[in-house]
């Protein structure tokens, strides 16, 4: 009982984070009919800045890290992306009134990663003093790419079999290259490469780091407004998407927390790293994933997978998932 009370107290404290406050504030503004708008170009610039900052720091720390320490968490990140897609394929995609390819696309989007959710988690963790390996954000592509590739391949295999074209093969490499060219993943990988191969310490300390929290607050405001706007799209498709969008992020995050704990026991992966791995799993791609899936599974209705992700998945991952996994880590590792 004491364990539960301690966890609930920590969870309630996390909900008061200013990062989450901006998300909720954006949703409230949209619900009240506010005409406040942030131009799309500014939104994309903010996302680029945040992911460059994360990538630069990760690259600088990877340069100093023992790559052997990254191996098991990276393998687990790949495994988690695959598990999430397979779970969605054999749960959501087989439910009544769910078109199989749309269910698979939704699972792919939830298996992929949200850079904004990752940035929000890092800001909250830094405020809480919860440390993590600086290379942990670099686990992003290890989860993101396998999830998107697997979802697109599975959906196309299903559609090919349904049409009776059993001899047609799905080409995997173009899917991988499209994923790597996505704006979010490109920015993150560029930051990692620059941090790893150059010496960007001065520009990082003087430019990217000071702007991080302010830009993140604007991003959370935009995402709050976007989440409320997407609710109407979610109503147009089967209600199972709403159930999936609310439940899946927490289930995925808990799976990652369990695997992260195994990495902690076997390799010393930090509690903060376990939390970040859980948040990566709980998040759903909001930038690179949708256009990749739209191109890879053109017959799937974007209202289904984007509505489930933006209207419910992302708010659940940020407002509930981040404080949940931080609180869980504080309790579990304090008693370990």
TrEMBL record:
Keywords: Membrane, Transmembrane, Transmembrane helix. The keyword Transcription regulation does not apply. The keyword Membrane applies. The chain crosses the membrane at residues 15-34, 41-59, 71-92, 104-125, 137-159, 180-198, 210-229, 241-263, 312-333. InterPro entries: Sbt_1 (IPR010293). Pfam families: Sbt_1. This is Sodium-dependent bicarbonate transport family permease. It comes from Thiorhodovibrio winogradskyi.
């Amino acid at each position: 009982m004491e364990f539960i009370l301690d966890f609930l107290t920590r969870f309630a404290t996390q909900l008061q984070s200013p990062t989450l406050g901006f998300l909720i504030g954006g949703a409230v503004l949209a619900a009240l009919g506010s005409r406040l708008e942030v131009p799309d170009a500014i939104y994309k610039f903010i996302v680029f800045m945040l992911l460059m900052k994360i990538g630069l720091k990760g690259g600088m720390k990877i340069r100093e890290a023992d790559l052997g320490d990254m191996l098991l968490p990276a393998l687990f990140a790949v495994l988690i992306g695959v598990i999430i897609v397979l779970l969605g394929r054999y749960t959501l995609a087989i439910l009544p009134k769910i078109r199989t390819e749309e269910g698979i696309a939704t699972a792919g989007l939830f298996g992929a990663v949200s850079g904004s959710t990752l940035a929000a988690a890092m800001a909250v963790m830094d405020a809480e003093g919860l440390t993590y390996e600086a290379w942990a954000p670099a686990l992003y592509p290890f989860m993101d790419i396998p999830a998107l590739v697997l979802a697109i391949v599975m959906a196309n295999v299903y559609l090919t079999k349904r049409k009776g074209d059993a001899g047609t093969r799905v080409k995997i490499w173009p899917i991988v290259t499209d994923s790597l060219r996505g704006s979010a993943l490109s920015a993150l990988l560029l930051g990692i490469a620059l941090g790893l191969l150059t010496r960007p310490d001065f520009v990082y300390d003087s430019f990217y780091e000071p702007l991080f929290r302010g830009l993140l607050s604007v991003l959370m405001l935009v995402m709050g407004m976007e989440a409320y706007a997407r609710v109407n799209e979610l109503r147009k498709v089967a209600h199972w998407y709403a159930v999936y969008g609310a439940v899946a992020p927490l289930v995925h995050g808990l799976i990652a927390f369990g695997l992260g704990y195994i990495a902690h026991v076997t390799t010393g992966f930090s509690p903060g790293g376990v939390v970040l791995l859980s948040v990566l799993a709980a998040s759903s791609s909001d930038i690179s994933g949708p256009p990749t899936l739209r191109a890879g599974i053109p017959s799937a209705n974007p209202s289904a997978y984007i509505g489930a992700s933006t209207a419910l998945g992302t708010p659940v991952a940020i407002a509930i998932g981040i404080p949940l996994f931080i609180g869980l880590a504080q309790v579990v590792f304090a008693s370990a």
